[in-house]
Specification:
About 10% of the residues lie in helices and about 50% in strands. By secondary structure, the protein is mainly β. Strands 1, 2, 3, 4, 5, 6, 7, 8, 9, 10 and 11 form an eleven-stranded mixed β-sheet that branches. The N and C termini lie far apart (about 45 Å).
């Protein structure tokens, strides 16, 4: 799951912080980024909760995920003009909501690059509130192995 994202102006947003979000109708929210929600279970697990809403970030330039094997933070570019999606869920009896990033299964190329099995779902909200999914970019190829001394 991505832990950071960067907007085109260079601002970096991180998990466990308050982030600005927009609903399909343009309403602005500022919610606490508190984990993730699998796209595969979005309707039955998250959208079915009373008061839940799908929101989107401003346009993003890149995301970063912490590698499962060694904890390294690895950056990758986002597709042009894309946003990240969040489900905003009210916490029962607490008077506030939490935002969970919508993730999807990582492609083989994303798994190899980020060394993580989940990735951000790229897209944007349509005026009716449905999600227009944008395919991820292919990550750069891995660096070649270091060459030993020739002499």
């Amino acid at each position: 799951m991505p832990n950071l994202f960067r907007t085109p102006d260079g601002k970096i947003w991180k998990a466990n912080a308050r982030i600005p979000l927009w609903l399909a109708d343009g309403t602005t929210l500022e919610e606490h980024w508190a984990g993730s929600a699998k796209h595969e279970t979005l309707d039955e697990k998250w959208r079915s909760r009373a008061g839940s809403q799908i929101a989107q970030t401003e346009i993003v330039a890149a995301i970063a995920s912490r590698a499962d094997d060694n904890g390294e933070m690895i950056w990758g570019d986002a597709p042009p003009n894309t946003r990240l999606l969040f489900v905003v869920v009210p916490e029962r009896g607490k008077g506030y909501s939490l935002a969970r990033m919508v993730t999807t299964a990582a492609t083989k190329a994303q798994q190899a690059h980020f060394r993580h099995d989940r990735s951000a779902l790229f897209g944007h909200l349509k005026p009716d509130g449905s999600i227009a999914i944008i395919s991820p970019l292919d990550p750069p190829p891995p660096p070649p192995p270091a060459q030993g001394e020739l002499f």
